[in-house]
Design brief:
Helix content: over 70%
Largest sheet: none
Radius of gyration: 17 Å
Order of helices and strands: HHHHH
Number of domains: 1
C-alpha cells in the first residue's frame, strides 16, 4: 500500500494544482452534507441518544480521533456504544466503493 501511495502522490499534487480549491471545497461539502443528514435522520427519525449518535457518525467516518473528541466533550464513554458497528460498516463501504470508483475511472 505504501508503494501505491507513493506512486499516486505526484498525480495527486498535479490534480490539486489543476482543480485547485474547488476539489477541497467539494470534499468538504460532501462530508458535511452526509454527516448533517446522518445526524438529522438519527436524531429525529430513529430518536437516537445524541451521545450514541455522534459515536455512530465518528464510526461511519472511520475517525477514531473524532470518537476521542466526542468522548472528551461528553465526559463519557457513551459515544463508543455506537462507534463499533458503524466503523466496521464504514470500512467495508470504503473498500467496496473505492474499488468501484477506480474501476469506473479506468
Amino acid at each position: 500500500m505504501a508503494v501505491v501511495g507513493l506512486n499516486a502522490g505526484p498525480d495527486f499534487v498535479q490534480g490539486l494544482r489543476t482543480s485547485g480549491p474547488s476539489l477541497v471545497l467539494a470534499g468538504a461539502l460532501t462530508i458535511s452534507a452526509s454527516l448533517l443528514i446522518g445526524v438529522l435522520v438519527g436524531r429525529w427519525l430513529f430518536k437516537m441518544h445524541p451521545g450514541v449518535l455522534l459515536g455512530v457518525c465518528a464510526g461511519a467516518c472511520t475517525a477514531t480521533p473524532a470518537l476521542a473528541a466526542v468522548q472528551e466533550a461528553a465526559r463519557s464513554s457513551v459515544p463508543s456504544l455506537g462507534y463499533g458497528v458503524a466503523y466496521a460498516v464504514g470500512n467495508v463501504f470504503l473498500a467496496i466503493w473505492g474499488t468501484v470508483i477506480v474501476a469506473l475511472m479506468a
